[in-house]
Amino acid sequence: MENSAKLTNRFREVLLSGKWIANTNYKDQLSNLTFEQATTKIGSFNSIAALTYHINYYTAGILNVFEGGDLEIRDKYSFDMPPIKSKEDWDKLFNDLLTNAEKFASQIELTPDEKLDEVFVDEKYGTYRRNIEGMIEHSYYHLGQISLIKKMIMEPTI
Prior knowledge:
The protein has six helices and no strands. It has 158 residues and is mainly α. It has one domain (2-154): Four Helix Bundle (Hemerythrin (Met), subunit A). Helix 1 (2-17) runs antiparallel to helix 5, helix 4 (48-66) runs parallel beside helix 5 and helix 4 (48-66) packs antiparallel against helix 6.
């Protein structure tokens, strides 16, 4: 399970605890935001809350498959975030992301290396490895957006 361990570490780095590639992670970027900051829209960019929802949507959806369920997520719904109207709403979304990320990381860790190259649900979705690596890359992509949007909110003269 050497490969699974490496993928687990990479996933945890981007979402929960890493500093290696981006010098930050989701937990660090989101932990000190107010719900007003998280929901602030700048131009046509998604809000930080919407990007958080988006990553959590995919994390929870793929986690469901790892836990024996069906692949129920659809791209067209990945930004259908319920309104964030309070600190409690924001805290719930943030905590859901952290919880799902840790559960997903634990599932990756438990995956035997030989399963990584098996078909994920359907051949059109590639392998388990491709989906895990896709989640890591997708998460870094949106982490960059979150970091920039956060700077624009915190330092409006940028």
